[in-house]
Amino acid sequence: LARERAVFDAHADSLQRALDLDHDLGERGAGQLDLWRGQAAGLGALVFVAWVDPKYVEAEMHGASARAKALLGAFQTLAERRPDRLRAVRAAQDLALARDARVVAGIPGIEGGHAIEESLERLEEFFELGVRVLTLVWNNHLSWIRSCQDGAGAGVPAGLSEFGRRVVQRMNERGMVVDLSHAGKRSFLDALDASSKPVIASHSGCATLHGHPRNLDEEQLRALAKNGGVVGIAFCTAFLDEGARAAERTLRQQPAYQAIGGKNDTERSLLQGEFMQRELPGLTAERVVDHIAHAVYTAGIDHVGLGSDYDGIERVPLGLEDANYALIAELMERRGFYEAEIRKVLGENLQRVFTQALPH
Ligand SMILES: [Zn+2]
Q1: Which of 79, 88, 218, 329 has its CA 20 to 30 A from that of 156?
Q2: What is the distance in A from the centroid of ligand 1 to the CA of 54?
Q3: Digit-coded pLDDT (tens) for 32-59
């Protein structure tokens, strides 16, 4: 797998480290993922997301879109500086060209529809800047789509609004992949109904195994399969396992955790994550394969992939620390998955969706 660069990861937050901490993602460094470690582990394609903290919405006029642009600028800089490791994907053909050149196909995305500031023109502007994935909503509710979290106030629709349907349709027309992780259930089903192309839920797990609001239930998994889409199983310990989530909740109450600071939010999160990874008993990577196996059981082998959420999560399961995707392949093989099935989950399924949805 490493030789063939067969792995496709639908979600990583590493751009924040590049922008806020000046980390060089072209070299082996801090955090959970960089191009060096990715390439060593067989990474062939990665969605680099610009996660827009909702605090930027209130900070200033156009604060959210400005933050997204700054993160996308960090991606652009990386792609220009390291053509030996990364190729920016603007069209479907770039996926194959990156593979031929033996570099990572980097797909710029935005996590959080608040970045488009309720404007289709802004969406177009991001498309022109190279954005090819939009996670319609993050944990904050919007005027046009409800998140999976509680606490939606008045003015938040039950699912996807009429404007939200237009966002999905415009994305389909232009060749942007619709990402439904973080969406409320009704929003999720509405978006599938509105989309003429296969979609992704880039970083989620199975609610049947752990009833976390970020995980997908049986109806969602089946609806996603019907659409031709793919769920990227996340390496987030809190989504994977109730016990792990409870232990993390307890740890966050400890003074030693709360005393952790940093020069900005990104550094603080990084240090908190390192503390958590060190202090808590590790979660076995078998738990990731539990979620993969369940999603395969419900949605089918053609509708499951990986979406690590590296550099967006505090800790990762044991053995997955250095983007060691090969461990997933190994554990799947031990569970009796065939090689062709492992290939689909590690990369081919997402490759198919992106090839169908991106511009040609
Ligand atoms: Zn997320």
Answers
A1: 218
A2: 12
A3: 999 999 999 999 999 999 999 999 998 8
